[in-house]
Amino acid sequence: MSATVTQTHTTTQYAQVPQHPPHPPPAYTVTTNVANPQPVVVQPGVAHNTVVVQSVPTFFGKQPANVICTNCHQNIVTRTTSSLKGEAWVLAAVLCFLGGILCVWIPFVMDSMYVTTHHCPSCNAFQGASR
Fold first, then answer.
1. Neighbouring residues of 110: CB distance < 8 A, sequence distance ≥ 6
2. How far apart are the C-alpha atoms of 41 and 48, rounded to whole Å?
3. Which comes out higher in pLDDT, residue 4 or 26?
4. For the chain, what are the domain ranges?
5. Residue ranges of the LITAF domain (predicted)?
6. pLDDT tens digit sequence for 75-120
7. Is the dihedral of CA 90, 95, 101, 106 positive or negative?
8. Cβ-proximal residues to 90 (8 Å cutoff; 6+ apart), any chain
9. For residue 82, what are the contacts with CB-CB under 8 A and spacing of at least 6?
10. Which residues pair with 129 in a beta bridge?
11. Which residue has the higher pLDDT, 16 or 73?
12. Whose CA is closest to 57, among 65, 48, 49?
């Protein structure tokens, strides 16, 4: 038992359609400096270098930080406030149950049980928190 397979190739000729160049896009503005924004007008059809602006993540600690506000874009030193985490109250309740009333104070003197929040002193916008 043998099967024969034949293949047929067809070539189709298409008419050449003249290609018109596309219209250039309109000019747009690029901001290059986040701290002191100055617009740069980019004209279409002209070669330009591409500028990529990346924000570096800021890790906030217990001390005020020197950052650029995400809301008012000013260079600021953050205003900090510290408050107890919810885990401190849970741990205090567990210690009270297991060790008596004498152990309740322990979570309230541990630095790891506090969170420090950072706000902009100019516009009061939240900037970040330490955990």
1. 88
2. 11
3. 26
4. 58-130
5. 48-131
6. 999 999 999 998 999 999 988 888 778 888 888 999 889 999 999 9
7. negative
8. none
9. 62, 114, 115, 116, 117
10. 117
11. 73
12. 65
Structure tokens at 10: 């067809």
Rg (CA), the chain: 32
Pick the closest to residue 84 from 128, 129, 118, 115 (CA basis). 115
The larger pLDDT score, comparing residue 45 to residue 102, is at 102
Q: What are the residues whose beta carbons fall under 8 Å from the beta carbon of 65, sequence distance 6 or more?
A: 58, 77, 78, 118, 127, 128
The amino acid sitting at 127 is Q
| Residue that is written with structure tokens 């210690």 in the block | 95
